[in-house]
Amino acid sequence: MGKFELETAPPSEELLAVAKQELRETPEVRAAAVEELRKLVEAATDLCYPTDEEFLIIFLRPTKFYAESALKLMRNIAEFNKTYKETLFNLMPADVQNVFIEHNIINILTNRDQHGRRMMVVNMGETWDPKAVSEEHIFRVLYTIHKLAVLEPATQISGVVVIYDFKGMGMKHVRSMSPGGAKRLLTFIQEASPLRVKGIHFINQPMLFSMVWSLFKPFVQEKLNKRMFFHGDKLSKLHEHVHKECLPSNYGGTLPALDYGGKQWYPVAEQHLDFIKKWNSCGFK
């Protein structure tokens, strides 16, 4: 497996304590919610979702075990997949393999932050060649990664943190972004993803970042807005949210500099193709 491995083991007692405090999760609440959601899904004649407990938990944890809210999330995902069918239909890791392996745009850190959250870095500047990798390509990679992240109970419970690094961003990058792409990404994050996004951090933004932000700002809802932080080149501000002990030296942390990327991460995706196919089968009938 190398440096990367999905943590698919059942949650630890420590994680279950977090789940109880933040998500209302207890054995009793869990069992009742699973049964209620299963009945709701089976009664929804227009939806196609597996109803095994492990799969339903993916939608119950982010909705704090309220079955009707979980069903709404499932409908949102089905609607999103329908809206962006041309981009997402039957999307498999092999379809984005070249972006993973040949371009250092998206990286998953091997460690978690001080709260146990998964961390992802998205390079939107000097390492991104818009001629080779389009805005849509980047989204397809992000969508593939989220399918794998939802497999991890620790990530279901603790959530994720995303760092957008704009170092070296120029006009060629700005011109490669669109209002439609911004809307797609933010609709996904806010309405059609079961991942708990606990923080989005923007670093190394140049002056023309304001042009990028003008694309995204109209679609940002209040809840997510409170979890967005703009640090510029002041990494000490980032460290107030993500401790230095959890970050590589590239980002002012005490861990070794990043020496890995998508090339090392991609093989993990190939090891979970059965789940990805299962996810791809979900949506409207």
TrEMBL record:
CRAL-TRIO domain segment(s): 96-259
SMART domains: CRAL_TRIO_N, SEC14
Pfam short name (any one): CRAL_TRIO
Source organism, top-level taxon: Eukaryota
GO cellular component, one term: membrane
GO terms for MF: phosphatidylinositol bisphosphate binding
Stored PANTHER family: ALPHA-TOCOPHEROL TRANSFER PROTEIN-RELATED, MIP26555P1
Identification of the protein by name: CRAL-TRIO domain-containing protein
Organism field: Anopheles coluzzii
